[in-house]
Amino acid sequence: MAAAKKKSPLPKGAGKKSPSVIESAITHHIGIRELRQDASKVMAIVESGQTLVVTRHGRAIATINPIVKDKFQHLLELGMITPATEKFDFRNWKPKSPPASAELLAAALREIRESRF
Fold first, then answer.
1. Which helix (H) or strand (E) holds 41?
2. 21 vs 65: which has the higher pLDDT
3. Among 25, 36, 49, 85, which is 20 to 30 Å from 19 by CA?
4. Given this model, what pLDDT does residue 109 score?
5. Ramachandran region of residue 79, left (φ > 0), alpha (ψ -120 to 50) or beta?
6. Coil, helix or strand at residue 6
7. What is the model's pLDDT at position 8?
């Protein structure tokens, strides 16, 4: 008779903890042979955001880091900006009308201040 497997009283995933700051800061070391044999697994690790140190005979010779996206790419992915549909031509550009006069702005500010009280 096979022994019955004991069930954990905790729900699934409850025993797992998220990595601490120190654990996430630790870089992983990988030998050249392992890099050659498991390149796709190594790239998956790097793609997940981790940095790997490549070693030869126990000595660090290189690092593999994930590509850091620039701010423009990040904003594009979030949908906060959209790329231009056509090239901007400075020769045909005409500036908009100048901003409101100082008197108009002063009157608007005065009106706002008076409406508070």
1. helix 39-47
2. 65
3. 36
4. 87
5. left
6. coil
7. 47
Alpha-carbon distances, residue 55 vs 44, 102, 115 (angstroms)? 18, 66, 70
Sequential DSSP letters for 93-112: --PPPPPPPHHHHHHHHHHH
Structure-token match 């231009």, residue found: 84
Name residues whose C-beta falls within 8 Å of residue 70's C-beta, 6 or more positions apart in sequence: none
Q: Pairing mode, if any, of strands 59-64 and 52-56? A: antiparallel
Q: Which domains does the chain have, with CATH numbers?
A: 22-83 (3.40.1620.10)
- Pair of tokens at residue 101: 């006069």
The closest alpha carbon to 28, from 16, 18, 40, 42, belongs to 42
pLDDT at 87: 87
Cα–Cα distance between 117 and 109 in angstroms, integer? 13
Q: Among all chains, which residue has been given the structure tokens 């390149």? A: 39
Residue 11 scores a pLDDT above 70: no
The pLDDT of residue 62 is 92
DSSP reduced 3-state for 28: strand
